[in-house]
Amino acid sequence: MAFPKFSRSSSSSPSGGLLSRIPLWVLRFLQFVFAITVIGLYAQDLRNASEHRKYSDSKWGYATAVGTIGAVSSLVLLWPALSMWGWGWDLIVFILFIALFGLFGKMFIHENPEGNGGVKRMKNAVWIDLINALLWLITACYGGILYLTRARRSTFTGRANV
After folding, report:
1. Model confidence over 50-80: pLDDT tens digits?
2. How far apart are CA 99 and CA 64, in angstroms?
3. What CA–CA distances, in Å, run from 141 to 5, 24, 86?
4. Which of 10, 46, 93, 94 is most deeply packed, by most CB within 10 A?
5. Coil, helix or strand for 64?
6. Prediction pTM value
7. Residue pair 34/126 in contact by the 8 Å Cβ criterion
8. Based on the number of CB atoms within 10 Å of its own CB, is 70 exposed (0-12), middle (13-18) or buried (19 or more)?
9. Residue 150: which of 13, 9, 47, 4 has the closest Cα?
């Protein structure tokens, strides 16, 4: 005798099944790639400052920390059990990247590079920050939609729809 109430199909999983996970995996992969890019773009200046025994500005440290938080978070949130519940953390990381975009955007968007490779690199880094922020906003909205439209089950047995 089969117990259909106890069998779990992929569509009743908390994160919406395999088809709903594929776009999320692609977004998480892009978040990871762009976060590593942020680390590489900003850490260059930190390394140069330490090699020349100069003061390293905390803004660049913040940028590297946000990139690291984004990279680690994108890998941790690939776990299917967290994909629906991680939307709150996605919002927090979105706010961190928007703050990073605002911080460096104010410094470099209107700057004329005049052949200076460092300024060109930082202007490009600002737009990578914005792309990162938008990716985190998209996954936050996606996770929030999954959370709000999930199948709710009773607390004790998990068999009844609530």
Report:
1. 776 777 778 989 999 999 999 999 999 988 7
2. 13
3. 31, 11, 11
4. 93
5. helix
6. 0.80
7. no
8. buried
9. 13
